[in-house]
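Box 3.1 — From sequence to structure: Anaphase-promoting complex subunit 4 WD40 domain-containing protein
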Amino acid sequence: SDVRELIWFSNDFFIVSLYGLAKKIYVWFLNSQKCSQIIPIFSSGICMNLSGKNQIILGNKKGSIELFNLETGILVLSKSKAHIGPIWAIDLLKNFFKVISGGADGMLKIWDYELNEIKISKYLYLRDQILSLKIFFNKNLIIISSLTSKILFFLLDSLQFSFSLQGHSLPIMSMDLHCDLSLIATGSADNFLKIWDLKNKLIRKSLNYHGSAITAVIFQKSTGNIFSASRCGKICFWSKNNYKLLSELKNYHLGPIWTLKISSNGNFLASGSQDKKLIIWKIN
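Predicted structure (token representation):
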């Protein structure tokens, strides 16, 4: 089925792919290009994140949160009905054993998790579906995109509203923080990729090149250059300095690209698509 999400782990020797409709997680050993583990899941997975060295946490279509051990394939813990409807976004505060989730029910929830249980700590009702979220820990912020087409910033400790950024005309489907936390990139259903200056709360650059909805954006860790992907299956590589197009990858994916992930050393890009392909790219 389509590749909904990807995660690099174990010093980039492995990559985990979430096949939502097939209800499976595949663990790939990249040196051999062989699958080392197949983990069945209980509902169509939508989002996932790495929790510790060998565990992943995921949100599914039925609103449940599940934690799996990647080495054994065993379900470590599960929280059913964590949300009413699909969970679209999930992130973690690994050092504090907290999970942050956002769903189609418009609820932002912070969970405490221990060895064998996960329980609610705080929650906030936003009315509109939450499509993506990021933790901005150094500034005590949670960044959220929803159906409102705004970027919303809430205080992490209290969930109090802090400020918002507005510039897109349709919902934001993906966003990523620069490694120095000064910039945020957003991709929207309005076909625009926008780069925002978080210090001055201004749009630094707007790019409309894909010609279709931007479904995934990510900064390259070593350079700060930007990758964007779209519903038409095209990947673009942009310079951080002048925002010129460095490279365009098209006709490789034959459907919407749902996810882009950069390896920890910044040298490889992984893309996953509705066309059921997982592609690993070497960045020159």
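Summary of the box: The domain at 171-284 is CATH 2.130.10.10 (Methylamine Dehydrogenase; Chain H).
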